[in-house]
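Tokens help. Consider this.
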Amino acid sequence: MGKHRKNPDRAQSHYSVGYGKPPLETRFKKGESRRGGSRKAGKSLAEEINELLREKVLVTEGGVQRRLSKRTAILKTMIAKAAKGDLRAADFLFRQASGAENAQVSDEAEMLTAEDLEMLADYLRRQERHESGEEVPASPVEPSDGA
């Protein structure tokens, strides 16, 4: 005889409950794990505003309905107000335009300065002399003591 001498019916059952074997009725169903993990990070205010400004709205222009983003619709409204003499709308538009220009200028500011270009030209001259076999004089540019 086997393990279940006292209760032979139990030996016939196809599933035993024990360590690592929970009762069938309390087990996870297929496709269900109940592991939620951590919460998603909330959107920042800028992300929410950009998401809302990307939504499309129906706008009637010259008797024709068009779907535009809210951002475009707002800009068209502000431009129309500025054209009619609304100083606040004009001020807003000019500030936005100058902000965009300043962002473009800061990108250009990362370009090489005159001093950088001079150093590169000096380096290239010395490299050419070195490759041709001439004696290379020391660089006329003195290193700065900025360290």
